[in-house]
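Possible regression after last week's pipeline update?

I re-ran a chain I had predicted before the update to compare outputs. Posting the input and the new output here so someone can diff against the archived version. Not blocking, just want to make sure nothing changed silently.
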Amino acid sequence: MRLLFRFLKPFKGKIAILALLYAVQSVCTLFLPYLMSDIIELGIRVGNMTVVWQKGILMILLALGGMAVTIVANRVASGLSADFSVHMRQKVFNKVNNFTFEQFSRLGTGSLITRTTDDISWMEDVIIQLPYILVTVPVMFIGGVVLSLIKDWVLAVILLAVSPFILLLVTVITKNIHKYWDKSEIYTDAHHRIIRERLSGIRVIRAFDKDSYEHGRAEHATREMCNSFVHANTVSGIINPVATFLLNITTVIVVYVGSMRVQGNAFVEAGDVIAAIQYIAFIGNSLLMLSWVFAFAPQIRISNRRIAEVLDMPSEENAEITEGIPVKGGDIVFENVSFSYEGSSVNAVNDATFHIREGEIVGIIGGTGSGKTTLAKLIMDFYPCSGKRMMGGVDYKDTTQHCVRNNIAMALQKSMIFEGTLEENIKMGNKDATEEQVNKVVEIAQLKEFTEQHEEGLRYGLKQSGSNISGGQKQRVNIARATLKEADVYIYDDSFSALDYLTESRLRKALNAHLKGKTQLIITQRAATAMRCDKVLVMDNGSIVGQGTHESMMKECQVYQEIYRSQLGGDV
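New output (post-update):
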């Protein structure tokens, strides 16, 4: 629970105030039965109405004071809980944004969603309940026992005798509950992941008639998740009726023993018995709260551990280098580079060796899953790998990821459009760009006609994920954003696939003129795109099976010939 206490440090003042308020509330509540006992014995029994009025007014004042303190305490607790959850979610969000691709893939989007929402919500509940339990439970228990001893020590002993039985029973009931909470979290992650996959791939699922299969996956994860939750909550739910039963039995015993002692003139009054019964309720509530701590402590520990896994995950950037050698130039060298994703027995990139000279336009072509995007990620230094990688004459091992990526501009395979204006989306590539520079890349990306069609121009509002523009327009915004950045290497990962051939031809012509002297890597599945590059790298099953000009690949590389023939036809 060190993580929890670490996050509580900034809120020590509020916690201290909350603890004080709960203590005052508990003391006010404790003295109500005591005063009521005095009213019965010193007032009603002897007919002294003065005592009844005095003690009654004091009880009313204590009740009103306790109510006022409770209202203030609830407001303070709500504010503390909200501030704590905001603080923790911000820390988790910032940490996730600094993950490497490998770290992100290791945890998965579904699991990160659960940790950021459900797990932090559990910690938020802890913050609300923890000060209350730490203060109220001991005050009510100890205070109830002490005041019971003052009234009648025999009745107090009966109260104390039942407490160990309740705690022992709770310990036995909750002994193995942690495995259900742990399993529920695992399947909650799986459920989120499967639902996200279904939503993002709904068209493909329907196209291949896989609705039943995907429904089965979701149903299995949902059923396992629900069964785990039901088991955990069922076990937790046993505590309340069992503990209440024992407390009711204790009440019966106290009433019986108390009445016998009253009748036997054992210096016990009826008011003392009534007070003892109320103290049973206070002590019982304290034990029930403590029981809930035992019941949900496993879930809290699991949530704490899962959040700690995110926050304590170390940075995988070269820790020995504090300031990397600046990377300049577009010369890229790979020698015997191999890489496999975690959990995979097959290399995604296998023994890749090539040399891209500065200013070259290189097309990387291959079928789906051949390793093109993974190769681009290795150039971007998203993953550690074997072999030698150099850029601008600098070995990747001698510099930092920041220095490498600072020299690269990349248009990702999936066009990311954010809610905001067209200009804001483009200027994400270079926030300091001038209006002239933005207009230039808009013209290069063939977006000028689009801006002229709308009165807002560059201030045209884009919706989240670009839902109000076409796929081709998304790609062109993505290209404009990458082109705006000042770099020596530009990577376009399948960024022209949604463009018609005429638009692509115009865009490529303008792009080549603008980036003359810069290195361009064009990842594509189109032979028509690759054939216009200075050099072609042909990939198949993670390996580079051919590299050279279009003409040489047409003679030497069978994979390239098959791609060309399937797309453009004709006699190779």
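Follow-up from reviewer: compared with the archived run. Confidence is low (pLDDT under 50) at residues 317-321. Marking as no regression found.
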